Every structure is written in structure tokens, then in C-alpha cells.
Amino acid sequence: MVSSSVSLPASVTLAEGEGGLPVVRVQTSLASGELYLNGAHVTSWTPTGSQPVIWVSGSSEFAPGKAIRGGIPLCFPWFGPGREPGLAPAHGFARLALWRLVEARDDDGEVTLVLGLTQADIHGVPGAGHWPHSFSATYTVTFARDLIVALRVENTGEEMFSYEEALHTYLAVTDIRSTSVQGLAGTTYLDKVSGAVASQDGDVSFTGETDRVYNSACTAVVTGAPGRSVLVTKVNSVNTVVWNPWMAKSAAMPDFGDDEWTGMVCVETANVLDDAIDLAPGESHTMSSRYAVTD
Ligand code: TA6
User: Where are the beta strands (DSSP E) in 12-78?
Assistant: First the structure.
């Protein structure tokens, strides 16, 4: 929700989006974009003069407590099934919670939105019962010629806690079968399809369901449309997750069109599994990702 003290610049509007959910819309000379307060979920970013960069399924749900399929889902405080048995829902509660818009500013066409979530905001959110820790999460999104997203987590409690995090970004591509990801060559990855650990040989290409957690802090370059590359540059992230569900998995997901698998790839900025973040009381950690389009 938006507290009454937050003033919105002319380039930022709060509206009713899909499913009647509150959405913040941004339009400047540099870019347009949108973010749903449910999940602090970026669902659109288009640099002026370019094609949309972010993909959202035409079959996505838009309802309180439901994950939006596509955009940039915020995975926190666990990733996938998490590292302990019984954690649900997948990817934690942050993407299901209603975040507060605490600031909106326009700096010469670069619009920055700041959203907040604390323990006090998650009562009744699916999964919140698994997380007894006091925390303060701040999500900062800058819509400009580039898109910059940063997730800061602070331990506001009296005991250490450990969490996983991912910016689970869905990028639009012309056809996954002619898409490649550069920048991960030589790094090891967990192949979640086969269960094996392997080393990446050259560029990542896609010939079937692909679900890999790479040990890499490097910039990834996604070449997914003629003449277009998207640079994914990370700060404080040692894992890059690459995912495409391919045919069978997408047909099995009700919020994912059966033939949509060809038009997207997830390249996720993350700290997961053994690279989860430990925070002592009073400590904080910020992970960020910058998306730049060359087309
Ligand atoms: O990041 C890849 C992944 O962990 C896949 O295993 C798949 O589960 C995907 O996330 C989507 O998860 P979701 O819970 O959004 O359906």
C-alpha cells in the first residue's frame, strides 16, 4: 500500500492493475515500467525506443497471495523448496506479500521506487509462519535506460539468521532455441534436471528443460533476439540461475501458456544453497542487478 505521506512525481502513477491489484506505473523520456505492490513485482520495463525486455505470461494469475508468472519475482527468504524440509510455498513469502511504497522520485527521467517489508507486514502471508525472525527488507528499483533492482535485508532481531535470495528475472526472447547466454563459461553448476554437477563449456544454449544454478558472480550476456543482447550485471551475488521449463513443464503449469516456453528465459541473480547469506543481529546485506539492453 502507499502511505499518504508518499508524494508521487508526475511520471509515477498508482493505478488498479490486473485483478484489481495496486500497480505503480512509470513513464518518462528514458523508459516505461510497472511494478505491482503485491510482491514488489516488476512486470514491465521498456527503454524508450526498444522492445519490452521483461516477459510475463498471458496466463498469469493476479490475485492477493498468488505469485505473478513472469516479471521479476522476489525469492526470499528461501529459494525453491528451501534448505529445510517442509518449507512452503516455493521461493518464500516475499513475492506473495503486499509491500509498502515508501518513496518515489524522478531524477531527470530516472525513476526510483523504494519499497519496504518487515515482520509486521507478513501476518497471514503464505509461508510467513516458517520465518520467526525480525527483519527489514528494502527493495529499490530504478527504471531508466537501464533497470537496476536492489534487495537489502537487515537483521533487526536478537539472533543470527540465514536466508536465500533471488531476483528471478524472466527475460523476453524471440525463440529460446536460438537464445544463448555468454559469460558463464568454465563455471560449475548444479543441474537441477539431472542432479549432476558440471562445468559450463562455452556459451549456454537450450535444447530442452534447463534448470541450473551456476557458481558465478560474473556478468551474463543474454542474446535472445536479433541484434539484441541484455547484460545482467550483479553486485554481491555468487549464483546465477538459468531456467527454461521447455514444453512439458510449461504445459504442466496452469499459469504458463503451453506454447509460451519459446519466448522466455530466466537469468536470475541469486545467493542460494550453500551460498545463502548469514546475518548477525544488526547486520545487513544488499544484492543488486543491473539490466542493460544493447540493440
Ligand atoms: O529458478 C528456477 C526454478 O527454481 C525452477 O526450478 C522452477 O521451479 C522455477 O524456479 C519457477 O518456480 P515457481 O515457484 O515460480 O513456479
Answer: 12-16, 22-27, 31-36, 41-47, 74-75
Could you tell me the distance, in angstroms and rounded to a whole number, from the CA of residue 80 to the centre of ligand 1?
6
Q: What are 49-92's pLDDT values in tens digits?
A: 999 999 999 999 999 999 999 999 999 999 999 999 999 999 99
Gap from CA of 106 to ligand 1 centroid (Å): 33
211 lines ligand 1 (CB under 6 A): yes
> Which residue has the least CA distance to atom 14 on ligand 1?
90
Q: Phi and psi at residue 230, in whole multiples of 5°? A: -115, 120
| 133: DSSP letter | -
Dihedral sign of CA atoms 158, 164, 166, 168 in order = negative
Closest ligand 1 atom to 90 CA: 14
pLDDT tens, residue by residue, 145-158: 999 999 999 999 99
Burial of 159 (0-12, 13-18, 19+ CB in 10 A): exposed
